[in-house]
Write a structure and sequence with these properties.
It is a single chain. The protein has 24 helices and 12 strands. By secondary structure, it is α/β, with parallel strands linked by helices. A 6-stranded mixed β-sheet has the order 6-9-10-3-11-12, sandwiched between helices. Helix 16 packs across helix 18.
Length: 659
């Protein structure tokens, strides 16, 4: 069961235009510092080993310069042999130290990557459902896969490599200055073209890579929405429009990738052409100074070798700069999820005075659509059964989302016990109101794991009681391992009816005082639906039930019926009163029955709103000619924009999986 978390919508969470926010440069730096501090001992060890490896690498050119001066001075071979052996030993020490530093660096990177992944999952699960839907699953999925993977590659490979090479480059420059400050100054000054090329690249790279990431997210979002709404696409002949949208997204992704490629194609050739400048500058100046006796030949050779040696670490650093820019943009997208989290904590979460729900002047409009609710006033009394009916697109599902705290109204208020529902802390909200829809999900794991999502501490006795309440204990007991049976692709596959029974069992475990039902048993076969609805009638006793009714027998059994038309509440009363008023509800009721106004009750009165028609739904449906498709067509509710969209509320898609 998903957690319907409040938070005031996109504006309060920092989400703009349906997209999750992106962290700033300072936030990314603070996050990186936090990760380093979390494994500070390992990072310190890696840093120390790199310093020692860089120091060992400095010995070779210095000793080679000493050999040159020793030979020019007429020294013997013994001195040359000793210094050559020292060069060999230092090279071996550098190899071992650098190898172990990389080993520790990779281990540090893997542990840090694990922290990034775990933190991202925790944040994603804590996001308000409205934020996830407005952002789109494609954006969140791309951040959790491609972006996290890019960050992991940097932490594991680029990070340690940059550290090693950075230490080596710094040590080389220091060594050149020690040999001769003038030669060191020339070496640094001739690195200016590289610095200019790097500055040009860095000014453009972050924006370019963020645009590339956003374009990739848009491709994933369009593909996911098209796949989720494949049947709707076929039914309404939208294939051409979806293909065109996909092509536009792919063209934009291609354009952004070509732009980053252009940046690299300018940056790297400019850097490669600049590598020869430091060595050339030192040789020219060193030759001039040596001719005047200002420096020894050995010093010039050593400085030139040091600057030649600088090429390899500098090349690696600049090669990794591109990776760091890509990773920095990815890290900003990963860290940006934190901006979308609700700011109210458990300590500051208000406590409702009672279970009464009030809707006062509620208005709501999706970001990419018109106003869906246009000023709704409604009071739902504790323990009441309220049915919400109306034609497709009337705003029924949107109203149910506001009542469940999934979304906050753009104007007006929706409160429980005087407290805005969307402002409730997620755990408290879950105990107050639960939205149950036709959509359901079986998570990878055991039957026990799937049930304990609603109540992690529930003992097996409560799990079995919840399964029995929805008539699912029989087939679970028949499984080879019972509650320990693995479900999903690698285990037992569940059909739609069993998956929805598990979802309803989670509702029983959550034990909220109010249930908002949107055809919660629609996917069950008639026999199973009758059993489940009778079981739910007992479970729902004493609770407030708000049912979005597509089958009007549900409205017949409710205490009151609310009729929605064009985003407004046009009628409110009991079934008999509304039929007698001969208004919109009466017209729907007559159309439902296909007669002149017959008012045959579908059960014995023992049902409830959301609990079904009573004893024999199959008989009632047969009597009314309702094979669901016929009935929905007759009532004007063909599962239009509010239910059968492409999976996104921006397009009028289905509500989130609350169970």
């Amino acid at each position: 069961m998903g957690r319907a978390a409040g938070g005031g919508g996109a504006e309060s969470s920092g989400v703009a235009e349906g997209r999750l926010p992106v962290a700033g440069v300072r936030e990314v730096r603070r996050a990186a510092g936090r990760l380093v501090r979390a494994d500070g001992r390992a990072f310190t060890a890696v840093l120390l080993l790199n310093v020692l490896a860089a120091a060992a690498a400095l010995a070779g050119p210095w000793l080679l310069g000493r050999i040159v001066d020793h030979v020019r001075a007429g020294g013997g071979t013994d001195g040359v042999d000793r210094m050559a052996l020292a060069i060999l030993m230092c090279a071996l020490a550098q190899l071992l130290l650098a190898r172990y530093a990389r080993y520790l660096g990779h281990r540090f990177g893997e542990r840090t990557l694990a922290r990034v992944r775990e933190e991202f999952v925790d944040r994603a699960l804590a996001l308000p459902a409205s934020v996830v839907e407005r952002a789109g699953t494609g954006d969140l999925t791309t951040r959790g896969t491609a972006d996290v993977s890019t960050v992991g590659t940097t932490l594991r490979d680029a990070g340690p490599e940059m550290l090693v090479c950075g230490m080596q480059a710094l040590a080389v420059l220091v060594a050149v200055f020690v040999i001769d400050p003038l030669l060191g100054a020339v070496g640094v000054l001739t690195l200016t073209p590289i610095w200019l090329a790097l500055r040009w690249y860095l000014r453009r790279a972050r924006t370019a890579y963020l645009a590339e990431g956003a374009a990739t997210s848009e491709v994933a979002e369009i593909l996911a929405a098209t796949a989720a709404g494949a049947r709707t696409v076929e039914a309404f002949g939208l294939a051409g429009r979806r293909v065109a949208a996909s092509r536009r997204a792919l063209d934009e992704a291609r354009r952004t990738r070509l732009h980053t490629l252009f940046l690299r194609s300018v940056f790297f050739p400019a850097v490669d052409a600049s590598y020869a400048l430091p060595v050339s500058g030192v040789l020219l100046l060193g030759g001039f100074l040596h001719a005047r006796g200002a420096v020894s030949l050995g010093a010039v050779v050593a400085a030139a070798l040091y600057l030649r040696q600088l090429t390899e670490p500098l090349d690696q650093i600049l090669m990794q700069v591109e990776q760091l820019q890509s990773s920095g943009a990815s890290f900003a997208r990963v860290e940006g999820v934190a901006r979308a989290l609700p700011t109210a904590g458990a300590a500051g979460s208000p406590v409702p005075a009672d279970d009464r729900i009030d809707v006062v002047g509620a208005r709501y409009a999706y970001e990419r659509g018109g106003e869906v609710l246009a000023g709704v006033d409604l009071t739902v009394r504790p323990g009441e059964r309220l049915a919400v009916v109306g034609p497709s697109g009337a705003g029924k599902t949107t109203l149910s989302r506001l009542l469940a705290g999934v979304d906050a109204p753009t104007a007006g208020a929706v409160t429980v016990g005087g407290v805005p529902i969307a402002d409730l802390e997620p755990e408290r909200l879950r105990r107050q109101v639960v939205l149950v829809t036709q959509e359901h999900h079986v998570f990878l794991g055991t039957v026990r794991d799937n049930l304990r999502i609603a109540e992690p501490a529930a003992p097996d006795a409560r799990l079995w009681a919840a399964l029995a309440a929805v008539d699912a204990d029989g087939w679970v007991r028949e499984l080879e391992s019972g509650l320990d049976t693995e479900l999903g692709a690698e285990g037992v596959r569940t059909d739609g009816s069993r998956a929805q029974q598990l979802a309803l069992a989670r509702v029983v475990l959550a034990d909220p005082h109010t249930l908002v039902l949107d055809e919660a048993t629609a996917l069950l076969d008639p026999a199973t639906a009758r059993h489940t609805e009778r079981a739910l009638a007992a479970v729902l006793k004493g609770r407030t039930v708000i049912a979005v009714a597509h089958r009007l027998h549900t409205a017949h059994d409710a205490d009151r019926v609310a009729v929605m038309e064009s985003g407004r509440l046009t009628e409110l009363g009991t079934h008999d009163d509304l039929v007698a008023a001969d208004g919109a509800y009466a017209a729907l009721w007559r159309t439902w029955h296909g007669d002149g106004g017959g008012s045959t009750k579908a059960g014995d009165g023992g049902g409830s709103a959301g609990a079904g028609a009573g004893d024999d739904e199959g008989t009632a449906r047969a009597a009314t000619g309702d094979d669901e498709g016929t009935a929905r067509a007759a009532t004007g509710d063909g599962g239009g924009s509010a239910r059968n969209g492409a999976g996104s509320p921006r397009d009028g898609g289905a509500p989130p999986r609350a169970v």
